[in-house]
Amino acid sequence: PFDVLVVGGGPAGAAAAIYAARKGIRTGVLAERFGGQVLDTLAIENFISVEHTEGPKLAAALEQHVKSYEVDIMNLQRARALVPGELVEVQLESGATLQARSVIIATGARWREMNVPGEQEYRGKGVAYCPHCDGPLFKGKRVAVIGGGNSGVEAAIDLAGVVAHVTLLEFDSQLRADAVLQRKLLSLPNVTVITSAQTSEVMGNGEKVNGLRYTDRTDGSSHAVELEGIFVQIGLLPNTDWLKGTVALSPRGEIEIDARGQTSVPGVFAAGDATTVPYKQIVIAMGEGSKAALSAFDHLIRSSAP
Ligand code: FAD
């Protein structure tokens, strides 16, 4: 069996694997797609100490760093279930089963998409999902935020300080964010809020976004808004369906962890976007992955088996 089996090959999983391997213990990494969300990212300008890099470049560097240690990398493999026990079992979609004395879950998350024409075509060309990451790229421009929950309203407040104008579109007849956030939002001079609005199309000139179209749900009329960027804030979905019933999850499906990355199952740790840790970012995922690996090592040296 593995001493540490990491499930997930994004920033959190890569960091966990490196920290575990450096303890000289038997380490494996299982990943559906090594690199994770970083592969879908273009410019990265908040990876501290690196002024600018690109997703695929960082993903390749992550893999190379992991490969410089003795780590068993199982890429293009998907975990299907986890079975707790003295030896934790991870069952794969392929039918195989892996055993480990400790497991670190770092299966990440994915942004919920609008599923409207133009969204995929203009992803990274005006359509964005992460205000902390891409907000500064829209300095002085006009943007829309899709979604009036807490994350949408927080994003609109954040962006209003950077961009020229923010239009917030909410599907429902009212915003769903906390009242204190709504008050702050409505106090800002460069924000317009449109409720009962269903985004129907992302428009562009072939190279980048130049507008969006929405349907007013009260009367079915269609409207266009001219802008340069669209931040989609309609939910972040953790990749934790395969853990339902075994590991304690929050109401949003995030793996509940303590300050050391310990989950509700002994010997099972978790890190990164799949967990309850606030703020989903690369540097945070790496820190959390490192922490989970050190906690797993601590668990191993305290458990009875040699
Ligand atoms: P992920 O990167 O999601 O990795 C999850 C890993 O688990 C993947 O290898 C996946 O294949 C694997 N996996 C999932 N399910 C299974 C399964 N059942 N079995 C096996 N493997 C599985 N952050 C920044 O800090 N700066 C930025 O500029 C930035 N820009 C972004 C732009 C975009 C378009 C997106 C989508 C995200 C961006 N982020 C940015 C956020 C950042 O990418 C994430 O916070 C970070 O990748 C989270 O790391 P993670 O390791 O927790 O999860």
TrEMBL record:
Its cofactor is FAD. It is an enzyme of class 1 (oxidoreductase). Binds 1 FAD per subunit. Keywords: Disulfide bond, FAD, Flavoprotein, NAD, NADP, Oxidoreductase, Redox-active center. It comes from the Bacteria. One of its GO terms (cellular component) is protein-containing complex. NAD(+) binds at residues 142-156. GO terms for biological process: response to reactive oxygen species. Residues 2-289 form the FAD/NAD(P)-binding domain. GO terms for molecular function: flavin adenine dinucleotide binding; NAD binding; NADH-dependent peroxiredoxin activity; oxidoreductase activity, acting on a sulfur group of donors, NAD(P) as acceptor. FAD binds at residues 3-18, 263-273. Disulfide bonds join 130-133. Its EC number is 1.8.1.-. Signal peptide: none annotated. Homodimer. Belongs to the class-II pyridine nucleotide-disulfide oxidoreductase family. This is Alkyl hydroperoxide reductase subunit F. The chain holds residues 212 to 517 of 522 of the full protein.
